[in-house]
Amino acid sequence: MKRYLRIYAQLLRLNLASLLTYRVNFINNVIASIGWGAMSLYTVIILTARVTDAYGWKREELLLLNGIYGIIVGVFHMFLSINMGRMSRIIHMGELDSILIKPIDSQFAISLWQVNFSTVFRILMAAGYTAWIIHSMQLSVSIASVLLVCTLAVVSLILLYSIWFLLLTNLMWFTNMSNLVVFLYSFESMARFPKEMLAQLSGVIFYVVFPVAIVINTPARVLLNRVAWTDILTLIVIAVCLWIAARKYWLFALRHYTSASS
Amino acid sequence: MSVNNRLPISSQRSRQWPKFHYSVKRLMTIFSLYAQHALEYKVRSLVWFGVILFDVFVYVLYWRGVLQNGQSGGLWTFSEAVSYYLLLLVAGNLLQIHIEEEVAFEDIQYGRLSQYLLRPFSYFRFKFFQELPWRLIQGGFGIVALIGISLFVRHIVVVTDIYAVPLIAAIIVSAYVLCFIYKMIIGIMAFWTIDYTGLQNIQIIVYMLFSGMLIPLHLLPSDIRAFALLQPIGYTLYYPVRAVQGVYTYGQLWQILAMQWVWMIILYAIYRLFWYRGLRVFTAVGQ
After folding, report:
1. What local confidence, expressed as pLDDT, does residue A19 receive?
2. How far apart are CA A206 and CA A203, in angstroms?
3. CA of A184 to nearest chain B CA: how many angstroms apart?
4. Inter-CA distances, B3 with A83, B10, B18, Å
5. Residue B260 domain-assigned?
6. Tell me, what's the pLDDT at B2?
7. B147 lies in which domain range?
8. Is residue B3 a contact partner of residue B99, using CB atoms and an 8 Å limit?
């Protein structure tokens, strides 16, 4: 564990060095990141402009849900999704060998190699927006609830990562589908809507989208004092199960990697 | 006086005809080559189709919850919302061009444009016929999905006036060309950027907001609605979808078509200007 922390610290240093080398690139990415954050928030503002409530959520509550979404997804894009894009490219081009021969765990190397520092601004923007909404809604937020939200946010990140990683592992067999990453961005954006909305879906489809539905809803419900212990437990259990499944599936998929590109 | 000018007019025409014939043949060859390519990678098209399907699906679900309470100020009904988003599923796949990334990254930034410049045909036309098969395949997925969904969903409202169909077809074709010119302009902006990613992301945001992908432009807040309804991006998706829904009179349909042509002329002039200026700064060794 200590060794991996040391390696990760070194990776962070390398990413920072790359950032300082390509500064114009960084500025471009900052603008794009802030743009996406603003777009995500503006989407809900537009969708709720003439609406007082949807699926039992008031307009302000929907805005709060999106603020939390901005923070959690921002962190996910900063540390994880950037590597998922890289993973699809690496598998598609048949370059996974260069990772497999390294004397470290392949899942670690493929999941945490890059860091997108420009997303910090998106996270800060979402955090500021969330704080403003909480203030305007006059919600009473205790330190305990903030700690619980932070813990659940970490669990949500594990769950999001597991979903992405499980689906992208399929690229070992379907190398042409490297644009699956774009689909996952779209799939993930479902998390910014109320869980009750997705409950409208019938049977199988609901169970497919359910893990994404609880990723943001559960921490947001904590702030709104609407969470039940069963919600928290469900989130943790699903996150742990999918994490284990993602790990096992990756190890299984490695046995089928052909080293040839698509 | 050149030799051609001394020939009788009928003879000049007969000489121009083979030239035109070969030009069409060449473009058809490009089309069929890329059609093979698109068919080979049809799974990728399916994933792209899935992206739009998912977005549409989420918005329909959202509006279902909202309109159950009789909200949205009476501006639209659930039937209209379902029709709009399902038609958007077809339009988004058929009319939303994705050529800009290839133009920017592969052709300009990696320097592959020089290959096209050496060939005896227009880069613009080449890209147009390269993109067309992809759109037709993805649009095909959209049409199949729309037909399948309409068997179960009774809310889909489309134009019933048969005489308006040719005019709407012209609007759809014009929307395709307009979107193509717009995306080509975005792509060739890479002549002046070292890293295109930021610009591409900003472009996606602007397109999503002003094309009607997110919400119909007439439902946007009043402060941006007037602008959104006038700008060219709206004519690439929003107006064609609304036209197929049958909400416009003949006069309005002609007006939309005229505006599409005005925007096409303006954008094509901008494209030509940027293209010739860009070529002067293109180094042919990548950016």
Report:
1. 77
2. 6
3. 8
4. 64, 14, 18
5. yes
6. 47
7. 22-281
8. no
Contact residues, chain A to chain B, C-beta under 8 Å: 22, 24-25, 27-29, 31-32, 35-36, 38-39, 42-43, 46-47, 49-55, 174, 176-180, 182-183, 186-187, 189-190, 193-194, 196-198, 200-201
Query: Which residue among B65, B197, B200 places its CB closest to the CB of A55?
Result: B65
User: What's the predicted TM-score (pTM) here?
Assistant: 0.84
Residue A186's domain comprises 2-254
B219 touches chain A (CB under 8 A): yes
Listed in sequence order, the residues at least 6 apart from B58 whose beta carbon sits closer than 8 Å to its beta carbon are A189, A190, A193
Q: Is residue A95 part of a domain?
A: yes
DSSP at B38? H
- The answer to whether residue A259 sits within a structural domain is no
- Could you say which residues of chain A have pLDDT below 70? 260-262
- Cβ-contact A223, B91 below 8 angstroms: no
| A195 and A217 Cβ atoms separated by less than 8 Å | yes
Instruction: Give the per-residue pLDDT at A147.
Output: 94
Tokens coding A206: 């609901």
User: Which residue intervals of chain B are DSSP H helices?
Assistant: 3-6, 9-40, 42-68, 78-95, 100-101, 113-118, 123-152, 165-188, 197-211, 222-230, 238-245, 250-281
Domain count, chain A: 1
Residue B230 lies in a domain: yes
**Token pair belonging to A218:** 């559960």
In a domain, A186, yes or no: yes
Total domains present in chain B? 1
Question: What is the reported pLDDT for B3?
Answer: 46
Query: What are φ and ψ of residue A229, in 5° steps?
Result: -60, -30
**Of A90, A128, A101, A39, the residue nearest A262 (C-alpha):** A90
Phi/psi of residue A53, each to 5°?
-155, 160
Nearest to A50 among B65, B72, B193 (CB): B72
Percent residues over pLDDT 70 in chain B: 90
Instruction: Tell me the H-state helices in B96-122.
Output: 100-101, 113-118
CB B157 within 8 A of CB B83: yes
Of A51, A176, A198, which is closest to B41 when you measure between CB atoms? A176
Taking CA A37 as the corner, what is the angle to CA A31 and CA A43, rounded to the nearest 5 degrees?
125
Name residues whose C-beta falls within 8 Å of residue B141's C-beta, 6 or more positions apart in sequence: B45, B46, B49, B93
Asked whether the beta carbons of B195 and A22 are under 8 A apart, the reply is yes
Supply the DSSP symbol for A118.
G
